[in-house]
Amino acid sequence: MLKLGDDVTLYNRDCREILPLQCNVVIIDPPYPDFNNDHGKKWDYVEIENLTLPEVRQFIFWPALREFPLGYTAVHIWHKPNGQSNEHYERIFERYGNKVCRVYRIPIINYQTLPEWTPHPTQKPLRLLKQIIAQYTQPGDIVLDCFMGSGTTGVAAVKLGRKFIGIEIDAGYFEIANRRISEALAQSPLFRLTPGSSGRGLGESEAEQFDLLAAPLNPVS
Ligand SMILES: C[S@@+](CC[C@H](N)C(=O)[O-])C[C@H]1O[C@@H](n2cnc3c(N)ncnc32)[C@H](O)[C@@H]1O
Fold this sequence. Notes:
The protein is of the alpha/beta class. It has a single domain, classed as Rossmann fold (3-Layer(aba) Sandwich), CATH 3.40.50.150. It has helices at residues 15-18, 126-136, 152-159, 171-187, 204-207; strands spanning 2-4, 8-11, 25-28, 57-62, 74-79, 89-95, 102-105, 142-145, 163-167, 217-219. A ten-stranded mixed sheet has the order 1-2-9-8-3-4-6-5-7-10, with helices on one face.
């Protein structure tokens, strides 16, 4: 377990060994059942229906063709205007929430050109995670991502004054996530990395300074 200041805890572990953990919201992008994402390196499929996630609001990325195996309250769409071939849309299932469905129109990362880029093959855009976190959590809330990959959810959480728990099984990706989240903490005026420090949260108007207004949001209903 690695603690970064008071508000971030990271585990380089198999999440099935340490869940459940207490949090206010779960945001996960699990290994996909239909296809192999890692350019030849096969990830084991994790049956999300068997995960012991806490019964709090959950957002689960699900690009798979396979039917979503859990009950849900809303389905959001991530529209990727620069997506390739038939990959323009991705579903994000919400559990334990309300029935409002949203469309997030945010380009996929233009790999290798943005400073945000990492070698993780399914890295999500920071803007997308910032929008979800700003809309559905409060300052000081704990965000859990037990498939954190390159750490995008953690970077967004830290930049918005939320606490974060991240789990990643792969040591290489864990190091990338650790580096990105540590850099976000170091740059944040809201948190200090010194032991005993305590971060203060920020409200949504303050969150706007982190480019949330730059991305259009089109409610479907
Ligand atoms: C789809 S990727 C997440 C990408 C992430 N959203 C990002 O922006 O970088 C899924 C991640 O889950 C990790 N993973 C797979 N099985 C796991 C397990 N049992 N416990 C923890 N992490 C796991 C993989 O190594 C991979 O990095």
